[in-house]
Write a structure and sequence with these properties.
The chain is of the alpha+beta class. The protein contains 24 helices and 22 strands.
Length: 709
């Protein structure tokens, strides 16, 4: 795409443009476009930017400013023209220039060997001949077809039924890894159709869902749905906000100005992909460390490369469900041809399924730390993407009823990415009538107390605080990372010490007999001393940790911190009435009620007294104290909301800065909102705030300036 010299020139040019004061004339417009397109290629196609996001933003803003001053100079290929303001009303059906075929599947080295033999057989080639293959990931996103005419992107479509697809040009134009202009003409190509896959990086997806959770929007099920949904939205700015990227893996059609085949000098699939890379597309890379594409000299090498990828699939940045093996020679591809369904010269090597079916054998009911009953399905063990699954959570009674799960059902189980396996659905068509209803218990499976279910809760609950299961779970929670964070103390030790009669409640944790522990099998002096050190350390914890570790329902980390900031000593809370709680913003009636109830229980007070006498810290520490907000801090009494993707700081960091400046973070645009801070690709919130006209809208930089860094 760009030679070394060219890249150096563009880099130097960028620095020069960045150093220039705000341009008023249009003289640098083409230089700005050239450098921005270069940086988009480095960032989106290579994943290897050479300038900071900030510098890229600055170049972009300079270009926007010039274009605003000289609208007659705006061209459709300008980097600013990726999102058009008009909404796509409806998708038109368009015909692909050549049909988009499917791929035949293979699952192991044996299948691949047969595929190789079939080709040789079909062409009458000797059985011991080595055919060269090009192998690349089978990307798991939404398939797209791009048409370039006279070097311009003129059309983009979904795969559709292979012959016809939905036209999604406006949406695809927003993807920065798709060049709006590519110099096909330099290679004698007047019109071309490219195939590729639109995807969202796994880490980007996780962040996006976190942001959606913060914005109280429904979460996407997986990167693939988020990508395919993003391609088909009616609002291109929504597509843009999903950070979709497109890998191009096939040149499906190429003709010259006279309509003649223009594959010309291209000899192999590998050549084709290299060419597309040179033209600026994001392609599977053929150089380490990211060896995505490899030319293999024979099918044995292909099999090894496929297995290598199968093993590292989870650590790869994108979801892939296999590898695609393509005979490398275009001439050989031509001779081999296609069936109506798939090319004979290519095959997919499918990774071990992430979905599997198995039998639902039994349901066990587990009791949690606050008595919630969780049904857990016991399954006939089944291999799923590298692990054996024999047990999955069914969450609650409604989950079972909504899916109509029955004992003895064959169920579809899925495990995607790092996600915990879950039951997708029962296979109703496989029922033979012997399946049985799953009966939810009416009494606690451990202590037999009658279960209750509050109207607004999903869980049935055992309300006996002395229920053995709850006592153990509470202790496990108490020592866990988010609570008292006692290193090296976990579920198995707690259960063991409980069975030995050493632990009856959380206070006992602070009076363990380390000499006795050292005598236990598997322990010894050293581990016992380590445990002692960890527990001694925990005794000095700030009180917000202690508050959180008491498993008071709904008193999470945040409420723990708020309460800890309000008291000199934990005991003060014991004397608080509802009115006192009401004075604290962000502490609602539920937490208030639960804390009051906790202190009304004589037994809880006893346990706390014991803990205090055993040396556990009960007084506010430096870490608990509220960060003082100056009365003349810049945002005192203001409400603020962040939207879009922030480039200079994380969302949490930004919110903390706003809070430190005296502002209150909110989650929705309303008449009460004072400031909206807009990151990249802001969507509906920005529109709404603009429409309201009462909200001060600021960029990230303006915000940082306001709060002082
Ligand atoms: S080649 C004629 N290469 O897999 C060649 N397809 O069943 C046909 N896919 O939905 C496709 N990654 O979009 C090819 N590197 C890759 C691919 C790939 C994903 C998808 C393709 C289609 C399906 C083929």
């Amino acid at each position: 795409m760009y030679s070394k010299e060219e890249q150096r020139r563009l880099f130097d040019l960028s620095k020069k443009l960045l150093a220039q004061p705000e341009p008023t004339d249009a003289s640098s417009i083409s230089e700005l476009r050239e450098t921005i397109i270069y940086h988009e290629w480095r960032y989106y196609a290579l994943n290897d930017p050479v300038v900071s996001d900030f510098e890229y933003d600055m170049l972009y803003k300079k270009l926007q400013a010039i274009e605003a001053a000289h609208p007659q100079l705006v061209t459709p290929e300008s980097p600013t023209q990726r999102v058009s303001s008009d909404l796509t009303e409806e998708f038109n059906l368009v015909e692909h220039l050549t049909p988009m075929l499917s791929l035949d599947n293979s699952y192991d080295a044996e299948d691949l060997k047969e595929f190789d033999e079939r080709i040789k057989n079909y062409l009458g080639l000797p059985a011991d001949l080595d055919i060269e293959y090009c192998v690349e990931p089978k990307f798991d996103g939404g398939t797209i077809a791009l048409v370039y005419e006279n070097d311009q992107l003129v059309r983009a479509a979904t795969r559709g039924n292979g012959a016809l697809g939905d036209e999604i040009t406006a949406n695809i134009r927003t993807l920065r890894s798709v060049p709006l202009r590519a110099e096909f003409s330099k290679f004698g190509i007047a019109k071309a159709e490219l195939r590729g896959e639109a995807l969202i990086r796994k880490d980007v997806f996780v962040k996006m869902n976190e942001q959606r959770a913060a914005d109280e929007l429904t979460l996407f099920a997986n990167p693939r749905n988020a990508a395919t949904g993003g391609l088909r939205t009616k609002d291109p700015s929504e597509t843009a906000s999903r950070r979709i990227e497109a890998f191009i893996y096939q040149l499906g059609y190429a003709v010259d100005a006279n309509g003649n085949n223009a594959f010309g000098l291209l000899k192999s699939h590998d050549d084709t992909i290299d060419l597309l890379g040179k033209l600026g597309f994001k392609i599977p890379q053929d150089t380490p460390p990211n060896l995505e594409r490899k030319v293999c000299k024979n099918i044995t090498e292909v099999a090894a490369f496929c297995v290598e990828w199968q093993n590292k699939r989870e650590s790869y940045g994108y979801e892939i469900d296999g590898m695609v093996v393509k005979a490398n020679s275009l001439e050989l591809q031509q001779r081999t041809g296609s069936t109506a369904h798939h090319p004979r010269w290519a095959i997919a090597f499918k990774f071990k399924a992430k979905q599997a079916t198995t039998k639902l054998l039994n349901v066990e009911f587990q009791v949690g730390k606050i008595g919630s009953i969780t049904p857990v399905a016991k399954l006939e063990p089944v291999a799923l993407a590298g692990v054996t699954v024999s047990s999955v959570s069914l969450h609650n009674e409604d989950f079972i009823r909504n899916k109509d799960l029955r004992l003895g059902d064959t169920v579809l189980v899925e495990r995607a990415g790092d996600v915990i396996p879950y039951i997708v659905k029962p296979m109703e068509e496989l029922r033979d009538g012997s399946e049985q209803e799953i009966v939810f218990p009416t009494n606690c499976p451990v202590c037999q107390t009658q279960l209750v279910r509050a109207e607004d809760e999903a869980a049935w609950r055992c309300e006996n605080p002395d229920c053995e299961a709850q006592v153990i779970q509470r202790m496990i929670y108490h020592v866990s990372k988010n609570a008292m964070d006692i290193d090296g103390f976990g579920e198995s030790q707690i259960e063991r010490f409980f069975r030995l009669g050493w632990l009856r409640n959380i206070a006992d944790i602070y009076r363990l007999d380390y000499e006795a522990i050292a005598q236990l099998e598997g322990f010894g002096e050293k581990s016992a001393n380590n445990l002692r050190a960890a527990i001694e350390k925990a005794k000095k914890n700030p009180i917000h940790r202690l508050l959180h570790s008491l498993t008071i329902h709904h008193l999470g980390i945040k409420a723990g911190k708020i309460l800890a900031a309000e008291v000199q000593n934990i005991w003060e809370l014991k004397d608080w009435d509802e009115e006192r709680f009401r004075q604290i913003k962000d502490i609602g009636p539920v937490v208030t009620h639960n804390v009051i109830r906790f202190f009304q229980h004589e037994k809880n007070v006893e346990i706390l007294k014991e803990m205090e006498s055993l040396g556990v810290n009960f007084t506010q520490t430096e870490e608990d104290r509220p960060k003082a907000v100056n009365a003349d801090a810049p945002l005192v009494g203001k409400t603020i909301l962040f939207t879009g993707t922030l480039m200079k700081m994380g969302r949490k960091e930004a919110q903390a800065k706003a809070e430190a400046a005296g502002a209150k973070n909110t989650s929705a645009v309303s008449g009460n909102l004072d400031y909206l801070i807009v990151g990249e690709d802001a969507g509906s919130k920005l529109k709404k705030a603009t429409a309201l006209g009462t909200v001060t809208i600021m960029t990230e930089d303006e915000f940082l300036e306001l709060v002082g860094g």
